[in-house]
Amino acid sequence: MIPPERLGIWCPEQAAQQLGDPYLRVLCFDPDQLQEFPLEDVAGWFKQSNERIYSAAEPAAEFEVSCALTAGIHRIQTPPEFHAVDELLMIASRPAANKDEPSAAVLVLRPKTGEVEVLEQKWFTANRCDVGYQWIARVARDPVTGRIVGDGIRLGKFELSEDGQDVARWLE
Length: 172
Known about the structure:
Blueprint: E1 7-13, E2 23-29, H1 39-42, H2 45-48, E3 61-66, E4 72-75, E5 88-93, E6 104-110, E7 115-120, E8 135-141, E9 148-153, E10 156-160, E11 167-171
Antiparallel strand pairs: 1-2, 2-3, 4-7, 5-6, 6-7, 8-9, 9-10, 10-11
């Protein structure tokens, strides 16, 4: 978790020139600096802007993680404001070259150690799921088993295998 005095947000982004890879943008805000804003300030703002987050205050820190990273562990640079976070699990959509390639990955971000582990979701393919109609909505680590659990839109609840890349079992 982000320390209690901070608020963390992440969202998917497209590269500015549409030629680069999509990425996840991770931001940290100081709640004491957040300011109230009237709805009319943002009513048309999202239609005119490529931004996915609106805030009247600047983030305390932010960084980006590419969604195109290959499976495995990668070194990353994270601002010091995130170093109190042991682990953050994020879901990244991935373009698949064919119907048997994974269309999603779980990114296990470890800001304290400066790494991200990419766990391709081998079960989430166009041959096995209706990608776009179904998607992984959220994941978390089970504190008892250490396994990643999650759920999705039109998918149900699941527990991932020990390696975090396949469904070990569907939960009720």
